[in-house]
Amino acid sequence: MKRIQYHEYGGPEVLRLEEYEPARPGPGEVLVRVRAAAVNPMDAGIRRGRLKMVTGRKFPRGLGHDFSGVVEEVGAGVTRVRAGDEVLGGAGIQGAGAFAEMVVTAATNVTMKPANLSWEEAAALPTPAVTAHQALTVKGRLRAGQSVFVAGALGAVGRSAVQLALTMGATVAGSCRDTAAGEARDLGVAPVVGFDFDPAQLAARFDVVLDAGGKLPLRTMRTLVKPGGRIVDIVPTPAKFARAALPGPYEVLVTKESAADLDHIAGAARDGALRLPIAATVPLGEAIPALTEFEHREGPKGGKLIIVP
User: Which range is most confident: 43-52, 162-171, 296-305?
Assistant: First the structure.
């Protein structure tokens, strides 16, 4: 089998497309033949060693987490899926390796792929949509009838948050680049503001303020949130964790693997309430140049980069 992997932490120049032998699934695991895999910003961060306290120094390491595919084999004790099932899901942080012909992951990290989603559409969802769902429900404690402000409403997490919040019966406002305001309004965002907006015009209007890009100033977020509301940041740093430990509405989300959340986002997609745009699709053999270009590209990406074995 072939997969994209690396033998040391570093920039995209360390990536190699190489032969490897996929492991047999152990207890509670599944082996999936990958049909599509999606690129996330965290892939580059992990490859650069930003989570080496978790990922360690054992090489080679596979790259990539989000995928869709067909279950090839299940390990002992697995009842959630069976061989032949079409699934979407993610590889664990330690294991990774979705940019490959086959990947092994925990059975709780996959869910059935809705029949109305293409392989590419399904692969695009897991990390951004689960992150958005947990930001809204676990940290934001969003309820029907409440209001949400999503900073970066057209990124993968932001767009997922907008769609999921609407399914929960919330109203959604948000920010995006000025040239994309119409696209945000079509998604259901109202009002839509630019990135350099004056927060005073929306002061104390929102039950949940979600910074989907991790760049909204704290002062702005505090202006937007209602008394008793919650501020949620999805880009953790040591300084942000220290800030979240202080009394107040500020929370930092570290996305956790959750079978229930994965089932929920698959259900929303099945119902037509959740989709993410795809910028480009490339075969596995041409993926390294595409990954390099995508990582270095400044400005909006235009959607997900999908790798197809």
Answer: 162-171
Q: Are 224 and 209 in contact (CB under 8 A)?
A: yes
Question: Residue 301's pLDDT band (boundaries 50, 70, 90)?
Answer: confident
307 touches 99 (CB < 8 A): yes
Q: What percent of the chain has pLDDT over 70?
A: 100
**Sequence-distant (≥ 6) Cβ neighbours of residue 53 within 8 angstroms:** none
Please report which residue ranges of 23-177 form alpha helices under DSSP H. 41-47, 52-55, 119-123, 126-134, 156-167
Q: In the numeric block, which tokens belong to residue 58?
A: 């054992």
pLDDT digit string (tens) for 135-193? 999 999 999 999 999 999 999 999 999 999 999 999 999 999 999 999 999 999 999 99
Q: Residues 6 or more apart from 70 whose CB is under 8 A from it?
A: 32, 33, 35, 84, 85, 86, 87
Cβ partners under 8 Å of residue 61, min gap 6: 5, 6, 47, 55, 96, 97
Could you give the angle at which helices 156-167 and 126-134 cross, rounded to 10 degrees?
50
d(CA 134, CA 126): 12
pTM: 0.95
Contacting residues for 259 by C-beta, under 8 A, at least 6 apart: 80, 108, 109, 111
Of 80, 120, 54, nearest to 262 (Cα)? 80
Domains present along the chain, CATH in parentheses: 2-124+276-308 (3.90.180.10), 127-252 (3.40.50.720)
